[in-house]
Every structure is written in C-alpha cells, then in structure tokens.
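In this section we walk through a basic example: taking a raw amino acid sequence and producing a predicted 3D structure, encoded as discrete structure tokens. The instruction is simple. Fold the sequence below.
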Amino acid sequence: MLIFGIDKFMSECRALVNFTGNAVATLFIAWWDRTLDADRARRVFAGETVEPMPDEDRLPSTAPRTSTMN
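The resulting token sequence is shown next.
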C-alpha cells in the first residue's frame, strides 16, 4: 500500500513539472519570436484585468481550391 501512495504523490509531481515546463517553454518561444507583450504578461501575472487580445490571426474566408490539372 505504501507504493500506491508514493506513486500518487510522484504522479502529482510529474504533472506539476510538466505544466511548469510547458508554461516556461511557451513564454520562451513567444520571447524568441518577439511576439511576447511583456507588459501585458506582467499585468496578467499580477492579477490585473486586461482587455482581450485582438483577433489578428483570423484569415479572410476564401473560395475552395480547385485543381488546374485535367
């Protein structure tokens, strides 16, 4: 029974480390691509209310592609 308790504890630790690593990697990639808004990130981490991000990535709808090869 002791092994099951240790395994549950270790599982929680793995999940926490995985979450932290993913968060750090996301911030690092955004910083690397120069798309990280550091002031906004600081406000969010401080618990301040911020406006939603503008939807800049939305592409205009286009007609479906058709093949030109016959």
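Looking at the output, two observations stand out. The chain has two helices and no strands. The CA atoms of residues 10 and 16 lie 10 Å apart. In the next section we compare this with other chains.
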